[in-house]
Amino acid sequence: MSRTTRAADVVVVGAGVIGSAIALELARAGRQVLVVDKGPGAGFGSTSASSAIIRFHYSTFTGVAAAWEAGHLWTDWTAHLGHDEQPARFVRTGMLVLDSRPGPTTDLFDAVGVPWEAWDAEEIRSRVPGIDPGRFGPPAPVDSEEFFADARGRLAGTFTPDAGYVDDPRLAAENLATAARHAGATFLLRHTVTALDGDGPRRWRLTLDGAAAGVVDADVVVNAAGPWSSSLNRLAGVDADFRVSSRPLRQEVHELAAPGVGPVVAVADPDLGTYLRPHGAGRLVVGGMEPECDPFEWLDDPDDADLRPTARVFEAQALRAARRFPDLTVPRRPVGVAGVYDVSPDWTPIYDRVSTPGYYVAMGTSGNQFKNAPLVGQVMAHLVAEVEAGHDHDRDPLTFTAPRTGAVLDLRTWSRLRDVPPGAPTSVMG
Length: 430
Fold this sequence. Notes:
With 430 residues, this protein is α+β, with helices and mostly antiparallel strands. The chain has 9 helices and 22 strands. Strands 5, 6, 7, 13, 14, 15, 16, 17 and 18 form a 9-stranded mixed β-sheet that branches. Strands 1, 2, 9, 10, 11, 12, 19 and 20 form an 8-stranded mixed β-sheet that branches. A 3-stranded antiparallel β-sheet has the order 3-8-4.
């Protein structure tokens, strides 16, 4: 087989929603960008299994501010892309987080400028038809007596009216990839990186296996490989450079028919360990919030994941949804998707450089960073530009000023060298 040699300023490994957003912003900055992905198109990996909820509940200022800035980009999606070729659609429903009261999170909302409302149980019942605001938690296995116990009080919640969801997450990634191509980026699909050496003519040499096997020489590599990120770091020999890293975790998201009885808003329900959102007319999407009572399915190799939805996980998610919305009908056969999350210990991403020159990571996105993808592209382009110009981000961490909202994001929040504090988030609502 003949082997070709290519060259690029930057190689982005991964064409999911994160990698495609990074490619777009680097290409807009005038860099020669090549994106490599093992899939047949943009967004065919973890992105396609995302529930694509756009929400603002985070436990840090940077988390809230980033999600709020990204929300503006989703609202003005075609302007952000610079094209209107079959754009994905942001659907504004608002989001209710049950058993969330005014406090540290709403203080962050106020600091960032996120509108919110406090709802008591009566307000919840009147604004979300069909919901039972009873307090059933903490979450219990759906085959246990505790799960079917009577309510022990009623829940309150906080509502953010500007939240919602994107109707087609894979299409959103393709939108970003199309915009990146318009800006000059090239996508090399159905290719796998089999070797990554830091001694190429342009600093890095990537050996590729695929339809046109060959090598790529690049000044900069950006690892946006999702659940394959840690293995790519090992391939590059930079895996020892992290205090926090990530692991692949298999996850499932399911659909239920809900004609006239499903939620009209997105609902995060830590009391039962689930979340729900509308999915067009008469359907809803339901997923899990990683309650302690449910086993985690960690993987050594994301390629080992069985991507067929299972009856066990479907039953748990569907019964929890029906506990909160008693008029829902639970079908016998699972309908949904399975995918693999790239999970860090605190469910917070790692957007950073490493100490080896020219290598950057956008990893540990943990199922909660789809919403931030367009902003992550801007942050990573800023990081690459500053570090390649000589800035020592490890000694003097950078900030990023959000263009739409003016919020100043402290990039230490996403450092590979951060310490994970006791009580850090342990679920996708991190």
